[in-house]
Amino acid sequence: MASSKLHALWNHPAGPKTIHFWAPTFKWGISIANVADFAIPPEKLSYPQQIVVAVSGVIWSRYGVVIIPKNWNLISVNLAMAGTGMYQLSRKIRHDYYNQEEADVAEE
């Protein structure tokens, strides 16, 4: 049973013998690095970098849904990229704009 599932995965059109498997697999490194960056202070985050991560995640998640055969690795890694990018952007925006407003109110 396990050997037939392994054989089916190996010979799948989006399986490990194709770039369609390995390209999204390497993108997991970007998502994991973005999760590791949750620990760094928001002032060290980059707007351009996080915008690119979030937008590319959204765009490629959509693309991963419409291609046939569905590449679940592509869909899931890009959902993770979109989620982590949006979270990091929200941290940066809250730090840059909302904390500044609170500081301005405290000075008055």
Automatic annotation (TrEMBL):
Keyword annotations from UniProtKB, A to Z: Membrane, Mitochondrion, Mitochondrion inner membrane, Transmembrane, Transmembrane helix, Transport
A cellular-component GO term for this protein: mitochondrial inner membrane
Q: Where in the cell is it found?
A: Mitochondrion inner membrane
Biological process (GO), any one: pyruvate import into mitochondria
The answer to whether UniProt assigns keyword Mitochondrion to this entry is yes
> What InterPro entries does the record point to?
MPC
Pfam families found in the cross-reference section: MPC
Membrane topology note:
Multi-pass membrane protein
Q: Which domain of life is it from?
A: Eukaryota
KW Flavoprotein (keyword) present: no
Hey, which family's this protein in?
Belongs to the mitochondrial pyruvate carrier (MPC) (TC 2.A.105) family.
Its biological purpose is as follows:
Mediates the uptake of pyruvate into mitochondria.
Q: Which PANTHER family match?
A: UPF0041 BRAIN PROTEIN 44-RELATED
What name is this protein filed under? Answer: Mitochondrial pyruvate carrier
Q: Which organism is it from?
A: Apium graveolens
